[in-house]
Design brief:
The structure holds 2 protein chains of 2 kinds.
Chain A: E1 3-7, E2 10-12, E3 18-25, E4 34-39, E5 45-51, E6 60-62, E7 70-75, E8 80-85, E9 94-99, E10 111-115
Parallel strand pairs in A: 2-10
Antiparallel strand pairs in A: 1-3, 3-8, 4-5, 4-9, 5-6, 7-8, 9-10
Chain B: E1 4-7, E2 10-13, E3 19-25, E4 33-38, E5 45-49, E6 53-54, E7 62-67, E8 70-75, E9 85-90, E10 96-97, E11 101-105
Parallel strand pairs in B: 2-11
Antiparallel strand pairs in B: 1-3, 3-8, 4-5, 4-9, 5-6, 7-8, 9-10, 9-11
Classes of the chains: A mainly beta, B mainly beta.
């Protein structure tokens, strides 16, 4: 089955850290450019970070609000995507989705990150 | 950053009627435009990519058109399961999304 399954969300205090994971199956993960997209409660979609495939240099890009705080990485041997989030702020509260631009890979259900004191 | 603007914010339509949603880009994205449908508590579902190509399993009543900066999603005859939020997304340069259009029952 083709799927993406996110995990690792939870409640964290401002300034804290969290590491999200995304397990991929049913497609050639190593060839995919993978992206983390978040959606704050009642708000729209925002791309926060992306990692290219190894063959394309495995380079990363980040949205301005998270640059320097978030890091995207991947383990192609285990088909897992990661999002390391440091120095978390209240405004980082959102459902985080991993995804890829594909007609066959549906978005995962997402994982909720709540940043609150 | 390419800014995507969707209109209207809310569209009230009766079942069986036609719905037309618009999306404008702040600069040309050529045909690198996708449309997603999202229902409450669910992730977005890809409907259209390449501005006009239907994704796998998407019914023919969904169609996309446009290129450059102006795009349209048309739902030819609304079914009950089509009432949802629709997002446009450009992938020409990074990924940015519109703020969404809510299609509600009139």
């Amino acid at each position: 089955e083709v799927q993406l399954v996110e995990s690792g969300g939870g409640l964290v205090k401002p300034g804290g850290s969290l590491r999200l994971s995304c397990a991929a199956s049913g497609f050639t993960f190593s060839n995919a450019w993978m992206t983390w997209v978040r959606q704050a409660p009642g708000k729209g979609l925002e791309c926060v970070g992306r990692i290219k495939s190894r063959t394309d240099g495995e380079t990363t890009d980040y949205a301005a609000p998270v640059r320097g705080r978030f890091t995207v990485s991947r383990d192609d041997s285990k088909n897992i995507l990661f999002l390391q989030m440091n120095s978390l702020k209240v405004e980082d509260t959102a459902v985080y989705y991993c995804t890829t631009l594909s007609t066959i890979v549906p978005w995962g259900q997402g994982t909720l990150v709540t940043v609150s004191s | 950053e390419i800014v995507m603007t969707q209109s209207p914010a809310t569209l009230s339509v009766s079942p069986g009627e036609r719905a037309t949603l618009s999306c404008r880009a702040s600069q040309s994205v050529r045909s690198n435009l996708a449309w997603y449908q999202q229902k409450p508590g669910q992730p977005p579902r890809l409907l259209i990519y390449g501005a006009s190509a239907r994704a796998t399993g998407i019914p023919g009543r969904f169609s996309g058109s446009g290129s450059g900066t102006e795009f349209t999603l048309t739902i030819s005859s609304l079914q009950s399961e089509d009432f949802a939020v629709y997002h446009c997304q450009q992938y020409e340069n990074w990924w940015t999304f519109g703020q969404g259009t809510t299609v509600e029952i009139k």
